């Protein structure tokens, strides 16, 4: 069987030049689980970004449903040698596809890239075909764009950050969004006691698109990146996806009492990875995006391995590096917690 995947045209010209290669890496990772043995090739004959897919057997409904969540999918078509037969477009959002896109701020990471990051973690772990709702942690969530992406998958999400201002802006925006779209929801303020002492303020949203639908949760915690497990418990999350800070010094991210020495980001990740590992369920996966001009892929993978995580490399895992701007070359490192 022969299929063609047309890709979403990206508004950012810089990112568009890399989109086809990144989309191919993401699709290869997904098809390794969904349709092992599938063959792919870039097809430029249509004059638009397109990936050619060949499989021995027709893609089933479950595979088509999963491919609808490819971050750059515009439409999937069956190619029978004549006019293309449309099969599926982008998946419906559990909340709203505009949710992660509306809030604008300096330094915001594109929501389509964050969807790719989430997919990289999901299809690297043991829970990619789970029937039940999944739980995702972003231990440095900023204004929560990554959480909003995962919420559109119908997942329960938790985000932590030391910047109260970012969390407050995310909270206000999400509250307004739920109110405007008339979602049934409640907002609860909590305080979580930390094992190392002190507490973390939490704002928890419980919401549902319809009165009788399953209520989902989105929580925002004012918490240091390395205290996730202590505050939230061991083996709590199926997925961890985090877009690490890119460029200028983020000394606040080091946590109270910590001083920057050498590569501050490397020091932060080294300190936090054992805690993130503990927060993952066995078989769960973690995907971290980062600026490769500040932290090298090989070093980050070494830190993951030292923390007892199974590093995933080769094939699509080596195909995510891409240029963003003069000071930023972005990449993704992926690992899995052993079963």
What report would you give on this structure?
The longest helix has 22 residues, at 13-34. The protein has helices at 13-34, 61-67, 99-102, 111-122, 145-151, 164-180, 228-232, 264-279, 297-306; strands at 2-7, 39-42, 50-54, 73-78, 85-88, 135-138, 156-161, 184-193, 199-208, 216-222, 237-243, 280-291, 310-312, 322-325, 328-336. It has two domains: 2-88, Alpha-Beta Plaits (2-Layer Sandwich), CATH 3.30.70; 99-336, Vaccinia Virus protein VP39 (Rossmann fold), CATH 3.40.50.150. It is built from nine helices and 15 strands. Residues 248-260 have low confidence and may be disordered. By secondary structure, the chain is of the alpha+beta class.
SSE blueprint and pairings:
Blueprint: E1 2-7, H1 13-34, E2 39-42, E3 50-54, H2 61-67, E4 73-78, E5 85-88, H3 99-102, H4 111-122, E6 135-138, H5 145-151, E7 156-161, H6 164-180, E8 184-193, E9 199-208, E10 216-222, H7 228-232, E11 237-243, H8 264-279, E12 280-291, H9 297-306, E13 310-312, E14 322-325, E15 328-336
Parallel strand pairs: 6-7, 6-11, 7-10, 11-12
Antiparallel strand pairs: 1-3, 1-4, 2-3, 4-5, 8-9, 9-10, 12-15, 13-15, 14-15
Helix pairs in contact: 4-5, 8-9
Comma- or semicolon-separated keywords:
Alpha-Beta Plaits, alpha+beta, 339 residues, 2 domains, five-stranded antiparallel β-sheet, 9 helices, Rossmann fold
CATH superfamily of the largest domain: Vaccinia Virus protein VP39
Which structural class do the helices and strands define? alpha+beta
H/E order of the elements?
Answer: EHEEHEEHHEHEHEEEHEHEHEEE
- Provide the low-confidence segments as ranges: 248-260
Largest sheet: 10 strands, mixed
